Amino acid sequence: MFTLLVLIIVLAFIFDYINGFHDAANSIATIVSTKVLTPFQAVVWAAFFNFAAFFISKYIFKEFGIGNTVAKWVHAEFITLEVLLAGIVAAIVWNLVTWWYGIPSSSSHTLMGGFIGAALANAGAFSEGGVDVINYAKVVPTALFIFFAPLIGMFIAFVITIIIVHLCKRSNPYKAESWFKKLQLASSAAFSLGHGGNDAQKVMGIIGAAMIFYQKKTNGVDMDFNHFVNEYSWVPLTSFICIAVGTMSGGWKIVKTMGTKITKVTPLEGVAAETAGAITLFLTEHFKIPVSTTHTITGAIIGVGATKRLSAVRWGVTVNLLWAWILTIPVSALIAAVFFYLIKLFI
């Protein structure tokens, strides 16, 4: 059992690393596409603030609430190490597939689909309904924010862009562009803080669920998530380090999609999109709701594009992204179920 626990922890950190390079584009696509920073400078910038988010979560929010939510997506009696292993393997597979094809899918919803799919398979619930397996109080808000997060990002970005354009309508265009290029450094830093705070905690939730299960089974110790975080403080720290290192590795296919294919982004619009994304992520962290940073920034980029005219948004690309978002949870769940049955054959 201990070997299985170690394997889950290692794979969770690998997923965290993959999440970093898969989602690196979210915070650097606009500053790369507007040539504010070179790709290398951009990933170093984003990685630094991904890690700095650890201190925001620990000392300002004073908890890792998103990790707590993730750990409770499934009722405790249906969580086993085999379930968690199958879920994390499925999440890694789907993340790599979508990264390979340059599709900015959601790492958080991949993880949710994998966790739930494996738990349903464990309970035999694909044939019996599985109503009692899923903790709907935790899952429903996460699922709803598949739609709400991009809409909130879109609305805030639209409003910010309109306000900025109105305030700067008499400004010298060249001076204004120079200022907004500098402001993009701040807005991308803010979004990277939000990204780190949101996404690094997701693997903490999986590791926390595994450790809580292990302690109960082997030592008879009942441990809640906050106790786990205090007892194993190296887990939060390592989670934030892994996502930062992953961001350093980049994700250039998705940078291209996010930075150029949805709509052409100017420095002004980059500031508006990243600021809107950061506000959305900090709000959702406050309410302990894991959201997709990919969905959030995509909605924000669409919001700034829509201020020019609706035709400025390349809706064909956007519709393809929406299909990827819709398919992520069920496909991840099915992959996890398959892996669960395979794991049970050998364990």
Task: Summarize the topology.
Blueprint: H1 2-33, H2 39-59, H3 65-71, H4 81-100, H5 107-122, H6 125-128, H7 136-167, H8 173-219, H9 225-231, H10 234-248, H11 252-261, H12 267-286, H13 293-308, H14 315-346
Give a description of the structure.
With 347 residues, this protein is mainly α. It contains 14 helices and no strands. Helix 1 (2-33) packs across helix 2. It is elongated. The mean pLDDT is 86.
Number of helices in the DSSP assignment: 14
What order do the helices and strands follow? HHHHHHHHHHHHHH
Shape: elongated
- Our measurement of the CA-to-CA distance between the termini, rounded to an integer number of angstroms, reads 10 Å
Helix content: over 70%
Average pLDDT level: 86
Structural class: mainly alpha
Strand content: under 5%
Instruction: Kindly state the number of beta strands.
Output: 0
Instruction: Please outline the major beta sheet.
Output: none
Q: What value does the Rg take, in angstroms?
A: 20 Å
The quaternary organization reads as: single chain
Poorly predicted spans: none
Q: In brief, what are we looking at here?
A:
The protein has 347 residues and is an all-alpha fold. The chain has helices spanning 2-33, 39-59, 65-71, 81-100, 107-122, 125-128, 136-167, 173-219, 225-231, 234-248, 252-261, 267-286, 293-308, 315-346.
Using brief descriptors, characterize the structure shown.
mainly alpha, 80% helix, 14 helices, single chain, 347 residues
